[in-house]
Amino acid sequence: MRRLQLLKNWVETQFPNQSYIVQPASSDASFRRYFRILFNNINDKPLIVMDAPPQYENCTPFLSVAHLFSEAKVHVPAILAENLEQGFLVLSDLGNMTYLQALHDGNHDASDLYFDAIDALIKIQLASRAGVLPDYDKALLYKELNVFSEWFIAKHLQINLTSSQKGVLDLTFARILQQVLSQPKVFVHRDYHSRNLMVASPNPGIIDFQDAVYGPITYDLVSLFKDAYIRWDEERILDWTIRYWEKARKVGLPVASDFADFYRDLEWVGVQRHLKVLGIFARLYHRDGKNVYLKNMPLVMEYLRKTCERYRELHALLNLLDELDGIEADTKVGYTF
């Protein structure tokens, strides 16, 4: 309550002579919360206040990436006021309809939305240059993979790996890193999916980009097409991926010249992301008490298994996943007696 009062006090200093109400807009998987300012004067557009407690969140990357993406001519919130000491920002309002909501409502054509998302992503990638955003380097990629080991295997499944199983995981991680780090680099949003794309004009509105990095060119495509929150059949994913690849080649982005090689790059990056996401969802549940993400785990695991089935180098990981599944099942049966 104290935090909310601080926010309201600061907002009042920004709009001292205006009548308005402040209401919750959304929250995300971090400590950030968002509030909508609704003005009594109907001619005044609603605004968004980001609440990012400075002991947990740093607003500076958000401001930096907002500037970069705005320069790339994609639709991100405009920064209208800031208080970095208290962790508050006033932003333009991109609306309240995410891609995920629009697709579930069935009132929007999926391909139209995803074609717009592809076009926006290409604009971001064309604006890329080294030395501006943090590198998605070996250390960061490996740290994310370890979230899977620590939070999904050890905490969520409550399994202690044998030395042999650890060896399989270490070898697999090394192979994943080798593949991912060999790809050309661009600006990477890092969570470019249906919950962070808003149906807006121009479309899409892009949010939650503060963790952007300079990394593999296929990463955001995996986030978009192999989304943890909505399932698409593989035929449609292939069709959309081909559309991106053809457009990317045409404008000179550094994608593989052969589509089969490009799709392999995408799938290997996907393995890294799926492992990370499983770990993050487990951490959100066990550490932060957010159980809403548990229902999304089976789809992420399905993506991971299907990719492992397709590549011989990943069969050992698939076998390990089977072993872990068997151990978990045996443990659950044991609890019933």
UniProtKB/TrEMBL annotation:
Alphabetical keyword list: ATP-binding, Nucleotide-binding
Aminoglycoside phosphotransferase domain boundaries: 22-244
Gene3D superfamilies tied to this protein: 3.90.1200.10, Phosphorylase Kinase, domain 1 (3.30.200.20)
An example Gene Ontology molecular-function term: ATP binding
InterPro entries xrefs: Aminoglycoside_PTrfase, Kinase-like_dom_sf
PANTHER family: N-ACETYLMURAMATE_N-ACETYLGLUCOSAMINE KINASE (PTHR33540:SF1), TRNA THREONYLCARBAMOYLADENOSINE BIOSYNTHESIS PROTEIN TSAE (PTHR33540)
Protein name: Aminoglycoside phosphotransferase domain-containing protein
Organism: Nitrosomonas cryotolerans ATCC 49181
